[in-house]
Amino acid sequence: MDLVESYAEDLKFARKRVTQVLLGGLLAALAVFPWLAPEGAVFSATLVALTAIGVMGQNLLIGYTGQISFGQAGFLAIGAFGFGHLRIWGAPFLVALVGAGLLAAVAGILVGFPSLRLKGPYLSIATLGFGVAVYQVFVNWEVLSGGRSGLAVSKLTPLFGLSRSQWEYYVYLLLLMVFTLVTYNLISSYVGRAFIAIRDSDIAAEVNGINLTRYKLLAFALSSFYTGVHGALYAQVLGHIEPQIFNVLESITIFVAVIIGGLASIEGSILGAAFVILVPKVLSGFRELVPVIFGVAILLVLVFQQLGLFGLWLKTRLYFQLWPFR
Amino acid sequence: MARGLQYALTGLSAGSLYALVALGIVLIYRSTRVLNFAHGDIATLATFVAFSLLSRGYSFPVALLLSLGTGAAVGIAFYFGVLVRAQREGANLLSMVILTLGLALIIQGVVVYVWGAEPVALPFPISDVKTYRVGAVVVSQLSLATMAAGLVASALLYLLVQRTRLGLAMRATSENVMAAQTLGIPTRLVLGVSWGVASALGVVAGIFLAPALLLDPFFMLDPFLKGFAAAVLGGLNSLPGAIVGGLLLGVAESLAGAYLTIQFKNTLAFAIIIVVLLVRPEGLLGKEFKERV
Q: What average pLDDT does range A165-194 have in this prediction?
C-alpha cells in the first residue's frame, strides 16, 4: 500500500494524496488566519513562528547531534543585539537578520571548540557558563546593550496595505517555512546523517570517516545561526530589547521546547515552540504555575513518551491509518 | 596585606558554602553519573520550610532538622519515584539529567506559588553584625558559623563514607554498580541514600546562606552554579576535590572582587570552569572516566 518505488519518490515532500490535501489545507488555514483571528492570537502565532526557528536550531544540536547545550540565551542575546546595532547602522532587514545569525554562528563556533573535548554533563556546564557570561557582559557593558534604557529596534514597515501585525505574521511564517524546508533537506543530506552518527557514537562516527571537528563545529554554528535569527526576530517583534530578557530561564524554555516537542524531529520543534509560547498565554492568570507545568510535562515526556508531542502525533496517525484494526 | 587577608577570610566563608553545594553535586554525580540540576532548588524549598517553621515560633534546631529532613525526602522521593521508573523505561543518561531539570522547574513553581516571589528575611539566631577581631582581621559571627558548618558537615560526610559499612557500600556502588549488585549490595537503596545525603548537604548550604542574603525563590541559583564550578574545578568524581575546589573558588572570587573588578566577579567562576575543562577536564583531584565504545 505504501511502497516507495523510486528514489525520486523517496525525495518527494508529501507522497500520498491525503498528505498533500492536508498540507494544502494547513497552508490555506495559515494564510487566512490573520484575517479571521483576533490580533492577540495573530501576535501569539507570530511568536510561535519565530520561536520555532530557534527551537529547530537547538534540536539540530541537541536532538540530532546529541550535544547538550544550555547556552541558548547567550546566542539569543548576541543575535538580538547584533540585529539591533546593524539596524541602527542602517542595514536593511534581511541583511541585518543574516548578519545577526552569522554573529551568533561565530560565537557558536567558539563555544563549539570545547565540545571537541567535552561530553555530556561537562559540555552542559560549559555552555551554561557561556550563557551566563554573555548575559553579564551585556548587563555590564552599556555600549553594547544601550545602557539602562535598552536598545530600540525599528519596526518593519508593512507593505501591500496590510496591518503591522498581519505583515509581521506573514514575514515570520515565510521565514519559518524557509527554515523548515532547509532543515528537512539538511537532515536528509550527508551532513544530517553525520550529525546523527555523531549522536549515536562519536568514536564510531569518526572511524567511519566523519570529520568530528568539522561536523561538531558545524552543528554548533548552524544551531547558533538559527538561534541568532530567533533572537533577531524576537528583538524586531518587541521593538525594544534589554539584556535582562536573555537570562538563564530563556535558555531553559528553549530547551524545554526541544524536549517536549520531541528530540530529533522537525515537526516536534514547531509543536514544542507552540507549547512553550501558548501554555503561559492560556494560563496568564496562574503565571507562577507555568514552570510546574513545564516540569511535569518533561517528566511525563521522558518517562512515558520519549518522542514528545511528535511521538503522540505519530501514535494518533498510526491509529487512524490502521483503523478499524489496532 | 591585612586587606588581602580580610578578603581571603571572607572568601573562605563563601567558599565553605560552595564546598557544601559541590559535595552534594559530586556525591550524586559519582554514584549515578547524573548531574543534578535540581540541587539548588531542593535547597531553596527546604530553606523556605525552615523559614515557615521559624516564623511560627519553632526553635532553630527543630527547624534545621525538619528542613534537612524535607530536603533529603525530596531527593529520595525523586530518585525512587522518577529516576528508577525512567531507568526501567530505558532512559539514558541525557534524559535522566533532563529529568532533574524538570524537577527543578516544578520546585521553582511550587515555591513561588506557596511563598510568593517577594524576598523575605530568614529569622536566624546567629547575627552577621556582631564581629570579632582576630589580629588584623575582623570576622563576623555568621561567617565563623558558616565555616564551622562546612567543617562539621564535611567531617560527618567523611566519617559516613570512609568509616561505615554504608559508606563502603556507597563507594563500591559508585565504582561499579554491576559488581556491587553481584556482591549483594542493595544498590538502589544505597543510591537512594546518596540522593538523600547529597540533598541534605545542599540544604545546610542554603540555610547558612539565607541570613547573608534575602530569601527569594531564586536565591540558590547563583551559589548552585558556583558549586558546579567548584565541583568541576576539584574534579566531578572526587569528594575531597569538591572541598578544595569550593574553598579555592571562594577565595579567588573574593580576591578578584577586591583587586580586579567587582562587576565581573560572578563571571570569574565560569571563566574558571571553561579554562579547567579545556586544560584538565578531570579537575584538580578527579580521575578520568574511561569510556568504551
A: 88
